[in-house]
Amino acid sequence: xxxxxxxxxxxxxxxxxxxxxxxxxxxxxxxxxxxxxxxxxxxxxxxxxxxxxxxxxxxxxxxxxxxxxxxxxxxxxxxxxxxxxxxxxxxxxxxxxxxxxxxxxxxxxxxxxxxxxxxxxxxxxxxxxxxxxxxxxxxxxxxxxxxxxxxxxxxxxxxxxxxxxxxxxxxxxxxxxxxxxxxxxxxxxxxxxxx
Length: 195
Prior knowledge:
Elements: H1 2-36, E1 41-45, H2 52-55, E2 59-64, H3 67-74, E3 84-88, E4 93-99, H4 122-133, E5 137-141, E6 148-152, E7 155-160, H5 162-174, H6 179-184, E8 192-194
Parallel strand pairs: 1-3
Antiparallel strand pairs: 1-5, 2-4, 3-4, 5-6, 6-7, 7-8
Helix pairs in contact: 1-3, 1-5
């Protein structure tokens, strides 16, 4: 009886991992397509810090994560395209879209003297802002250049590829509980970090 119960838990765990990997693939493919089309996007991936206050500023969706839905939401002139999307990979959900984020107070944003280009506007400032106030990871697509960036712990990293986004999310969400595992995989690639 105990063996059967253990196997059921193990199978469920494998299904959860498979679903999460599938969702990560949906996000990375959507980001790649949005980048090619120069469609701006801001995707907040909720970690341990609850983001109910952010979800409350937008339209709650509680929908499955899909490439098509992500691309559709960020398509220009759609009602929700300007705000942030909140994704919770633990529960396989797009929680909300059209959300408002706190803006970063970092003065270096937009300062050419410090090597940051003029493309870094409200989306990047918002991505940095939420990463300063929570452990969320944000994926940002620049409308002007199509450049993909991400923020984490108040740091902005630019010049990502969809494959890098996939690896980032896999490392952060699929890592074992061991803290060493969560730190060793992703930073093998060399992105351009700002801040």
